[in-house]
Amino acid sequence: MATTRVSVPVETRAPTGETAAYLLGSDPALLVDPAAASDALDTAADEHAVGHVAVTHHHLDHVGAVTRYADRHGATVWARTGREGAFERATGVAPDRTFHEGTSIPTGDGPVRVLDAPGHAPEHVAFAHGGALACGDLAVAEGSVAVAAPEGDLRAYLTSLRRVRARNPGRLLPGHGPVIEAPRATVERLIAHRLDRERRVLAAVEGGARTVAAVCDRVYGKNLTGVRDLAEATVRAHLAKLAVEGRVRWDPRDDEARPA
Fold first, then answer.
1. Domains, in order of start, for the chain
2. Residue 135: how many CB atoms within 10 A of its CB?
3. pLDDT of residue 194
């Protein structure tokens, strides 16, 4: 089945400095995550006759050219059911239709099916086409994905990764970095990374760290210049998960964490 990837430069905290847009199917095609316009994306969109536009989630480095390509091709714009208002605020356009888990979006090369994949963002989804899964910011080939409070939810994120592991697609098509040719191994690496970080956060609290800043210092143990806000938001997401599971006591209102 036809799948075309076009990376476009965009303002993002991802180390690549780019977001990958994907054209799934052809005549009509589904355009996923048009983060910005480019000559290369214009050409690919024209060649594959875009008929639908959707995004994996609403972060600014994935949505910047939704309106442009929808208008240029007279395409149907899709959004997650129940997230229409947030989608419109992020993209500047109201969706024509909505999808949910299992929705089928027709293309000229077979249907694209929607898979819920929250965690990085609450509305996050992935799009399955043939043996490939366009997974947005669910996974990356190297490094890890930010799961940052208050929007990020680590319990949901780990569930999403485990669902993809069970599905075992042939390839993952991420929003940043190269195509993932070994999805199961990559997903297992990402799960192990999160659980290791969780153990470090729990050990920091049990060792006397009481604030997010103190936990962050013990967990990371390195210079966080330029990414301190993201590191602390990640710690908050871990504390929220541990608190729900009854493994720590943490109240985000006063930024105090204590052993359970």
1. 3-143+167-180 (3.60.15.10), 191-259 (1.10.10)
2. 32
3. 97
